[in-house]
Write a structure and sequence with these properties.
- The chain has about 425 residues and is α/β, with parallel strands linked by helices.
- It is built from 13 helices and 13 strands.
- The chain has two domains: about 200 residues, NAD(P)-binding Rossmann-like Domain (Rossmann fold); about 210 residues, Rossmann fold.
- The protein is about 40% helix and about 15% strand.
- Helix 7 packs across helix 9.
- The chain starts with a helix and ends with a strand.
- Bound molecules: nicotinamide-adenine-dinucleotide (NAD).
- Nicotinamide-adenine-dinucleotide binds next to helix 4.
Amino acid sequence: MSDLYERLVKKEAKLAVIGLGYVGLPIALAFARKIKVVGFDINRKRVEMMRRSEDPSNELEASDFEGADILFTADTEDLKDVEFFIVAVPTPIDEQNIPDLRPLLSASRTVGIVLKKGDHVVFESTVYPGCTEEDCVPVLEEMSGLKYMTDFKVGYSPERINPGDKNHTLESVVKITSGCDPETAETVAKVYELVVKAGVHRASSIKVAEAAKVIENTQRDVNIALTNELSIIFNRMGINTYDVLEAAGTKWNFLKFQPGLVGGHCIGVDPYYLVHKAMEKGYHPQIIDAGRFVNDSMGGYVAKQTVKKIISAGTNPAKARVLIMGATFKENVTDIRNSKVADIVRELRSYSVHVDVTDPHADSHEVEHEYGYALAQDINGPYDAIIVAVNHRDYADRNEAWFKEHLKPEGLLVDLKGTYRKRINGLAYWSL
Ligand SMILES: NC(=O)c1ccc[n+]([C@@H]2O[C@H](COP(=O)([O-])OP(=O)(O)OC[C@H]3O[C@@H](n4cnc5c(N)ncnc54)[C@H](O)[C@@H]3O)[C@@H](O)[C@H]2O)c1
C-alpha cells in the first residue's frame, strides 16, 4: 500500500469528489468527517446550496453537513493540491439507449488537467466493464501528459446507495473496491474502509468491479420484467398477480419481485450499458434486451388497459377524466428523472383523455420542464379513473370511501402496486 492512505488520515493529503449528486454528496460528507475533502461540481447553483448546508437532491439534512472538513467548489484551481480523486458524475443513455459518456469524459478531463505523479483516481459512476481503463484512462493520460500505472493509479468502486432508503446507506452496505494493481487495490480498499462501516469487498480487477455493479441492476431489471410479463398473462386469465405472488412466495426459494413501472436513472438505464458492450463484443443479448422492452412498455400497457375499461363502462375516452397519483420514478423520493408515469400520461392523452397528475413530493416546475405538464394543485373530481402509480407512503391510508369521493359512480381504481387490493369491495378495481 502506498503512503497516500496514511497522509490522507493525517490530513496531509486531500481527497476530492467530482460530481456532488445523489451519490457524490453523501460520499464527500462521509469522508469529510474523517479527512480533508474538496467537493467539486460544475453546477455553481448546486455548489452555492451545499455551501449553505442544503442538499440539492433533497436526501440529506442540514445536520449531515455538521463537522465536515469540506470545501465546496466549482473552481478547478481548488483541485490542484488533491491527491485522491473520486468521480461520481452521471452516466445516462441517449435517445437510442446508447451510453452517453459525455459527463464522465468531461470529469476525466477536469481531473486530467490537475493530475500529478502519484495521484489516485477512483471512478464510482456505473459503467460497462472496461469503461474505466479503455475510455477514461486515455483522457487522463492525454490531459496530464502522465503515464497510467507508472505515474498515476486508477481504481473503481461502484455505489450501492438507494435514494429514499434510510437503512441501506453508504456506511451500512458492503462496498466493492478495486485497483489497477495489488498495491492500488489495497490503498483504495483502506480509504473506503474509513467510511464504510460494513466493510469492503476487494474485487480481483477493475473490470470485475464494473461488471458486478452493472449486473446487480440488470438482474433486478430482468426479474421485474418477468413479473411484469406474468402480470400481463394473468390479466388475460382474470387472476390477480399479487394473489399469485403471495401464494408462490410461500416457497423457500421463490424470488419476491413485484410488477410495476421501472424508471429512474439506474435499473432502467444500466442494462443498456451492458447491452452496448456485449454488442461491441459481437453478442446480441436476448434476455436483457427483452427485459428492457417489457419494462419500457409497461406505462403504455397500463394506459391502454385503463382506456379499455373506461370504454367498457360506457364512456367516450375523449370525454373521460383520469387522475394519476404519483409522478416520481419511485416511492417516497422527489426524483422525477426517467419516470415512467410520463408514458402513462402520454398514452392516455393519445386517446384524448383529460389527465390530472398529483404528487406530494415532486416539484411541478421540474415536471413541466421535463415532461411538458404541470402537476394539478387540487384534486378536481369526479374522475372516470384514478391510477395510483407510485406507492408513496402518503397514499397508504387512503380508503375506499376516499376513492369513491373522487370517482364517478362507475369509476375505476387502478392500483399498480396492489396496495389497496384487500381493502376495496364496492369499486371497479384493477391492479397489475
Ligand atoms: N442515484 C443513485 O441511486 C445511484 C446509485 C448507484 C449508482 N449510481 C450511479 O452514480 C453515478 C452518479 O449518479 P447520481 O445519481 O449521483 O447523479 P446526479 O445527477 O444526482 O448527480 C451528478 C452530479 O454531477 C455533476 N456533474 C455533471 N457533470 C459533471 C462534470 N463533468 N464535472 C463535475 N460535476 C459534474 C452534476 O452537476 C450533479 O451535481 C451514475 O453513474 C449513477 O448511475 C447512482
